[in-house]
Amino acid sequence: MIWWYWMFLGLVLLGVEMITPGGFYILFFGLAALIVGSLTWLGFAQAEWLQWLLFSGLAILSLLVFRGPLLAWINRQDKDLPAVDSLAGESAIPIEDLLPGATGKAELRGTSWTAHNAGTVPLTKGQRCTVERVEGLTIWISAE
Known about the structure:
The chain is an alpha+beta fold. The protein contains three helices and five strands; from the N terminus they run H-H-H-E-E-E-E-E. A five-stranded mixed beta barrel has the order 1-2-3-5-4. The longest helix is centred in the middle third of the chain and has 32 residues, at 48-79. The model has no long low-confidence stretch (mean pLDDT 89).
C-alpha cells in the first residue's frame, strides 16, 4: 500500500477516536497506521504483507501494553478534580434579582454560575443565598 494511504488511514482512525466515547481502542490502530506509513515512506517496509503484519502487530501490542496505563492515568487525573456536589450548602450571591423559579446568574467562589431560584421567595441582587444542589452547571439556590 502507498505510504500516504497509511497516513490517511491513521488520521481517519485518530479522528474517529476523538468523536467516539472513550475506550482508546481505535487510537492504537491509528498510531500503528501512522508508524507503518512512516516506515513505508522511509523504505523499510515495501512489501504489502510486511506492512499489514507490522500494522497488526503494532496495533495489538500497543493496545495491550499502553491502554491500561493510559486509562489509569486518566482516571487518576479525574480524581484530582473537585467534586461539584460539594458545593451544596455553600453561600452564593445573586448577581441579579431572581423571582421564584427563575434562572439568572449568581456568584460562587468568585465565579459566575447559572443559578436557579429554588425557593418560594424572590431573591434580590447581593443577598446571601444557600446552594441547595447542583445540576450540570446550574446551582439551585434559596434564601438563607
